[in-house]
Description:
Blueprint: H1 10-13, H2 22-46, H3 50-59, H4 64-76, H5 84-95, H6 99-107, H7 112-121
Amino acid sequence: MSVQRKEDTFFEDRKHLENLSDQEIHDKFWALTEEIIAPLLDLSEKNTTPSVERSVLLRLGFSSIEAKALVEKVMDHGLMAKGAGHVVYVASKENNVSIKDAGFGLLEDKYWDSVIKYFKGDK
């Protein structure tokens, strides 16, 4: 197997940067970085996964078994796009109970009417 060497084009590739100051290069770097990252941020803001939502619930103090069951219930109710942690938070606020009590209530099929009503109003 032969290894093909890539032609060194460093000096030619950097010609468009030659007349830029350090600050201009710095600014260009960050502008290009933002351009690259913007679609990733957009994707992460508009999408989630069961794994991410379980992780959020774990940080709210639920066990992994409870988190898994809550995420499944959130998906069953078509609210995954709202976020499982957000659903539990809304259940807590709308029913004046703690986060943990809201999550346990949702697992027992309580509070869903208030959560669905809240999100239909899309507050």
